[in-house]
Amino acid sequence: xxxxxxxxxxxxxxxxxxxxxxxxxxxxxxxxxxxxxxxxxxxxxxxxxxxxxxxxxxxxxxxxxxxxxxxxxxxxxxxxxxxxxxxxxxxxxxxxxxxxxxxxxxxxxxxxxxxxxxxxxxxxxxxxxxxxxxxxxxxxxxxxxxxxxxxxxxxxx
Length: 157
Description:
Blueprint: H1 2-5, H2 25-30, E1 34-39, E2 42-46, E3 52-57, E4 60-64, H3 73-82, E5 90-93, H4 98-101, H5 104-107, E6 113-117, H6 118-124, E7 128-130, E8 138-140, E9 151-153
Parallel strand pairs: 4-5, 5-6, 6-9
Antiparallel strand pairs: 1-2, 2-3, 3-4, 7-8
């Protein structure tokens, strides 16, 4: 667990992108995932949408945010395997926006556990309209139970 907590120190930035529904299969295929090592067992996956912090250690794989696009999750997993990880054991959603939590839809059914602030989990349980600096207003559907955070906190953890 101590190794996983070091992933929280990674500063993650985001870039503006359309929703996955607005992208063609060709555009998704051209998107690159780049891996940068930032410390022993600590990496950042740079791609399209939210960047992903990755901690790989003897006790498993933790990621910080899993967004980008669900269609890119298999490529993110390839990048994680390339640095010695296997499946994602634990994912921290820093907030509910799609570029930080949409990967839950793919990872949840594989057994990944999610951690999020209680309000973020609540937002993921209902229909919502996001109006962020990343995207114009768009509708988002509730996440299914397997894709919801199972560990939550209110002000600290």
